[in-house]
Amino acid sequence: MHLPQALNALGSLLGQRLSTSKHDLDLHGRSESYFALTPPDAVAYPQTTAEVQQIVRICAEHGVPVTGWGAGTSLEGHALAVQGGLVVDFSQMDKVLEIRAADMDVTVQPGVTREALNQELRATGLFFSVDPGANASLGGMAATGASGTTSVRYGTMRENVLALQVVLADGRVIRTGNQARKSASGYDLTGLMVGSEGTLGLLTELTLRLHGVPEAVSAGVCAFGRIEDAVDAVLDTIQMGIPVARIEFVDAATAAAFNAYAGTSLPECPHLMVEFHGSPEGVAQDSARFGEIAEDHDGLGFQWSTLEEDRRALWAMRHNAYYAILASRPGARALVTDICVPISRLARAVTETQADLAQASIPGPILGHVGDGNFHSILMFDPENPAELAEAKALSHRMVQRALDLGGTATGEHGVGMGKLGYMQREHGAGWDVMTTLKQAMDPQGILNPGKLIRPR
Amino acid sequence: MHLPQALNALGSLLGQRLSTSKHDLDLHGRSESYFALTPPDAVAYPQTTAEVQQIVRICAEHGVPVTGWGAGTSLEGHALAVQGGLVVDFSQMDKVLEIRAADMDVTVQPGVTREALNQELRATGLFFSVDPGANASLGGMAATGASGTTSVRYGTMRENVLALQVVLADGRVIRTGNQARKSASGYDLTGLMVGSEGTLGLLTELTLRLHGVPEAVSAGVCAFGRIEDAVDAVLDTIQMGIPVARIEFVDAATAAAFNAYAGTSLPECPHLMVEFHGSPEGVAQDSARFGEIAEDHDGLGFQWSTLEEDRRALWAMRHNAYYAILASRPGARALVTDICVPISRLARAVTETQADLAQASIPGPILGHVGDGNFHSILMFDPENPAELAEAKALSHRMVQRALDLGGTATGEHGVGMGKLGYMQREHGAGWDVMTTLKQAMDPQGILNPGKLIRPR
Ligand SMILES: Cc1cc2nc3c(=O)[nH]c(=O)nc-3n(C[C@H](O)[C@H](O)[C@H](O)COP(=O)(O)OP(=O)(O)OC[C@H]3O[C@@H](n4cnc5c(N)ncnc54)[C@H](O)[C@@H]3O)c2cc1C
Ligand SMILES: Cc1cc2nc3c(=O)[nH]c(=O)nc-3n(C[C@H](O)[C@H](O)[C@H](O)COP(=O)(O)OP(=O)(O)OC[C@H]3O[C@@H](n4cnc5c(N)ncnc54)[C@H](O)[C@@H]3O)c2cc1C
């Protein structure tokens, strides 16, 4: 890598928007979870696709690694420049370019966050559905294949990205997909890019599917004495085809963390939080049917409401869960697991995980998007205590093994990054070699987010 | 290509299940549409993945092209061995391997047809939703990225294939995806294979998503005086978020063809055919709301029913449309167009197409999955008359140009095959080069369905 030459050329291109200040490097060297500080050599703030193209060309010429950066909220250290080089921060490419309400889609720059997008959409009667807990960037969300609480109804990023503009490793710009709702025209390059974690190209424009704001929404929460009962209620709800828009599980420790963090007074036991979208009669019916299922499984005090303020309070609680849990052990860092299993195996995956955690010396509250078979344990350890980190890793390892044994995946939504690289061989076998082949074909020099996703050289 | 050596080795492997009879070669040299007879050199009928693997290894060793064959119903000559070599017919790999009702998924061999699968699922309360008009194989449907009348509600093959087993060009066998409902673990190889038309690998096992048979179904048909009114009614229905399970358009010529073919008595004008899935109250409400929209657009005599026999008659008519239309011009062959545009452009695409057809000397009835913005014209020409074929091609060409100008795609569901290869450059630009790069990486010898999808060498 010829770093000085590259930085020279990048400086001429970007002026002040190329930074090598310690502050900036440190900001782009940290991650939301437990990975060590890994500052890059420089940070670029492009404003246009043409600039991104120039940046990639310069880096390609000088063999300098290029790693994209959205909002830096990913949980597996994806955006850390582990081989040094340049971080490309998309925060100045934050424009909503075109809202096409009649087609129910929108074109955005990658730095737009999901909250900013929904803010812009307020007047249209439409919304963008994918909602990871953090206020992530849409570019980062596409790059990690993110999902969220509403994916059980509206799908993940895979189902909601219609088209992309991508800068490839050699600086070529391509457009993938189009504005039609479906196409059988060639390989699905859009799908290949979604979840590629910045290793195949930098996303510079995204066309996203929108959904109509439902006429009526009802949301509610139900307590359960035992985790198994809550999970069985989920299974019945999904299998009976009740169209949940959200169905989230939190365990007793999470409920306690909410209470301490936000002054709420949830009973400190497992809960399901649900939401239904439809007509006023439809959501009332769905809520009532869910209530019956919950009762069949000894659910206690299911309450639902169609009032926006009640709903907001409920989901603010859920969306702050990670921070509430972290706050329950001051000074701790977190290793977040993310397994996803076939729904029929969910009860087993959760109860075995629970039993394993009960033996552990560190806390690991469980919560998740159980309608998809996806749940997390937030394993908290003292960063000064290597034995605790080792224990967190061992617990996480057993969870992943369990998920793979049950026909599931190591990561339902957070992605591979650094934390799950060690499971790619077990999960994909020769398929991982194919991923490596694709990467080598598209980025022969290996400059795009090196050290991630494919087999390390 | 060392054909004799390859045939020797294949003969030892397969015995009677390797055929070079003229009858078999001709059967596998014809297509449903207008392409000339193109018999391969031999046809293999494997029964196991291990046999497919051996077949591919032998062909790779001797440089012999390998082209998969499902039910041979594709409309763009996809399965024709245009560079000779071996056709691998999957009809003897036709087992439903495992139905997991609790997980609402199923694993099948590629030769299972969609009708056979739904037959097997009868007792489970579940169904497989994708329904191209023909009784296609599930392997072929995945390979072409097929969709059908219910895709507006349940998605295309892209959304309904969860996992695959694939034999690659060098004989390696990989598994892509898993049984979890979502995964962020690496590149989406399943998505890359869906729609790859047998050019990246042969699909030997598919895990498919199933849906619950709805509690109630209502279906109905409505006549319109003008095509524009019918299309506007579609737009309103989609934009108001009425959850149509099916919404199909047929024009006056198609209605006339139905009547002649099946002795029905539809008014010979444009129609919409719709279906709703849900609770009894829900489908009644949806039907009524659709009825109001239709009336707003001067729809005439909308009738709906929840009786199974009425519904069956309606959809049998729709599913036989292609044959009914062909029968309206005895001896004709068909070139079927397949454009798909953003829904807001649908009215324009349909009316401009209609106007163009009105000037033509050959008939081209229009029908389609309009809820997705996708429609077909069945251009019928006398195979003995080259001027008519030329006219069909010119009409088709203008339709594709129109679709691309309107932000759409040359093919919503039928795929590229031979008929749409000429539009790949215009539709994808440098993206087509990327497809070519991927193909070369995964099949450097170019033995898998050569001559299709990527830039001809
Ligand atoms: C409290 C909390 C809750 C969370 N909940 C969820 C959840 O429910 N579901 C979920 O899926 N995730 C969740 N996450 C994880 C995180 O929010 C997602 O992974 C998110 O998609 C990351 O987006 P980002 O913009 O922060 O990306 P970053 O962290 O900045 O980057 C992520 C990856 O994308 C790449 N990248 C970023 N932008 C681009 C671009 N324009 N082009 C190419 N590559 C790019 C980076 O190189 C990196 O590999 C949560 C995180 C937190 C902190
Ligand atoms: C009357 C009629 C109506 C139709 N309506 C629709 C419609 O509504 N929607 C729609 O999408 N299509 C429609 N089609 C087109 C056709 O049915 C689809 O393209 C279907 O997916 C083809 O499946 P098949 O099994 O016949 O595949 P084939 O025609 O046998 O093969 C298609 C392609 O798939 C490849 N292939 C087949 N099996 C495998 C395998 N196991 N592994 C790898 N590659 C394989 C072949 O090499 C070829 O490239 C219609 C066709 C007809 C005749």
The protein's oligomeric status is homodimer
What is the β-strand count of chain A? 18
CATH topology of the largest domain in chain A: Uridine Diphospho-n-acetylenolpyruvylglucosamine Reductase, domain 3
Strand arrangement within the widest β-sheet of chain A reads 15-12-14-13-17-18-16
Structure at a glance:
Two copies of one chain form a homodimer. The first copy, chain A, has 457 residues and is an alpha+beta fold.
Q: Could you characterize the architecture of this molecule?
A:
The structure is a homodimer of 457-residue chains. The longest helix of chain A is centred in the C-terminal third of the chain and has 20 residues, at 386-405. Chain A is α+β, with helices and mostly antiparallel strands. The first copy, chain A, is built from 17 helices and 18 strands. The radius of gyration of chain A is 22 Å and the shape is globular. Chain A has four domains: 3-89, Uridine Diphospho-n-acetylenolpyruvylglucosamine Reductase, domain 2, CATH 3.30.43; 96-212, 2-Layer Sandwich (Uridine Diphospho-n-acetylenolpyruvylglucosamine Reductase, domain 3); 216-322, Alpha-Beta Plaits, CATH 3.30.70.2190; 330-405, 2-Layer Sandwich (Alpha-Beta Plaits). In chain A, α14 (346-358) packs antiparallel against α15 (386-405). Chains A and B meet through β9, α8, α11, α16 and α17 of A and β9, α8, α11, α16 and α17 of B. The complex binds flavin-adenine dinucleotide (2 copies). Residues 32, 67-75, 78-79, 90, 110, 132-134, 136-137, 139-141, 143-144, 146-148, 197-198, 202-203, 322, 413-414, 449 of chain B line the site of one flavin-adenine dinucleotide. Chains A, B: Its cofactor is FAD. Chains A, B: It comes from Puniceibacterium antarcticum. Chains A, B: Belongs to the FAD-binding oxidoreductase/transferase type 4 family.
